[in-house]
Amino acid sequence: MRVAILTVEFPPTILGGTGTFVHNLATALTKQGTEVLVITGSPDRYATRRIASGMEVVSFPREPFPPRHLWFQLRSMNSIMKEISTCDVVHAQDCVSLPTLKLCKRMGIRIPWVVSFHTNPLSELRAIAHRGASLVDYESYIPGFPFWDLTDRMIPKAADQSVAVSSSLRDELCRTYRIGRNVFKVIHNGINLSEFEKFDKKNRKSNGGRKIRLFYGGRLYYRKGISHLVRIISSIARDMGEDAFELQIFGRGPLENSLKHYVAQHGLGRAVSFRGHVSREAFLESMNDCDIVCFPSLYEACPLLMMEAMVMGKPVLAFDRPFSNEILGDEPKLLASDERDYASKLVSLMKSEDVRLELGRHLHSVAKRFDSATTASSYSEIYMRLFR
């Protein structure tokens, strides 16, 4: 079977978690014997074709401004359709499905389509509808919202199978668009567990009495909750002193300058450091060396970073949201109701190494259910059913 995976991003150019999801899935499918063709957008000026990890990757130019998924398709529609015609099944990622999906159906091309939903546009919009959001947040989400919303209304009616990457996302989409729950299958995102085997011997160990290391990784914009986290750190530093711990912030984004200003203004220079963008290897090494992973995001569907921290055996502290409850489980020590509760739970974790290690061991065992091989097998069952 030959499967075309349609996405707007793929390594080495990744804009968010979707690119990592596609890479993990495509790699696992290839290992299981499925022939994979990845059709992706690229910042390059010309189309390229390459073989990567046993799969074929065709990249078409995309514009640098949103909505990237629309320009990527319109600019190279004929070429994309030609690539799709060589495959048995098309697996697209939410907004990247249209208008190509509708065109295929209109032309009578009998290739089944599977579409994975990674977010709910309305929930994204609500998460940034706050005075703490940046102008870039508004420019990214508000102008494009009508199109994204229309897209998500149309896809379940046109696709042969729709998939939500979490139960919480499925429930959101069903409420938002008044769709029956039977329309969506739920298949969680997967991580390549073999990538983390080298960390297995080092994780879940004592920190040897050194300064507590806190870790944050993600884009620095409002929905990720980074503003909340920095305020929480400020309140903790007033009580414990800024030499008691260190928060390392990995990532960049529209809030970076205002966050740095806040850190300087509140004298947090020794407690908070901004690391910017680093290599994947350096990123994982830093997460493995930390004691607690801070995940203050206000909205997610199925966050890969949370899963990666879990498989490393790290306690992950998050706000009590449907997505975090689903991934972490109903663990009160790791789910905070608000900023004050988050600060309280973070201090408790910093003070008790035994609790950190116990929670880390538990999360490490839970994370095994998110193996990308399992995710690939679940999708393969859908491909085979539709292909037959």
Characterization of this structure:
This protein is α/β, with parallel strands linked by helices. The chain has two domains: 2-190 and 371-387, Glycogen Phosphorylase B (Rossmann fold, 3-Layer(aba) Sandwich); 194-370, Rossmann fold, CATH 3.40.50. It has 16 helices and 14 strands. α1 (17-31) packs across α16 and α9 packs across α14 (339-351). The mean pLDDT is 92.
Give a quick rundown of the structure.
With 388 residues, the chain is of the alpha/beta class. The protein contains 16 helices and 14 strands. 44% of the residues lie in helices and 18% in strands.
Task: Identify the CATH homologous superfamily of the largest domain.
Answer: Glycogen Phosphorylase B
CATH topology description of the largest domain:
Rossmann fold
Shape: globular
Helical fraction equals 40-55%
Number of domains: 2
What's the pLDDT, averaged over the residues?
92
* Gyration radius from CA atoms, angstroms: 21 Å
Q: What is the percentage of strand-forming residues? A: 15-25%
- Flag low-confidence runs: none
Largest beta sheet: what is the strand line-up?
A: 3-4-2-1-5-6-7-8
**Strands, count:** 14
Broad structural category: alpha/beta
The biggest beta sheet reads: 8 strands, mixed
Question: In sequence order, what are the helices and strands, one letter per element?
Answer: EHEEEHHEHEHHHEHEEHEHEHEHEHEHHH
Distance between the termini: 11 Å
**Which architecture of the largest domain does the CATH hierarchy give at level 2?**
3-Layer(aba) Sandwich
Tally of helical runs? 16
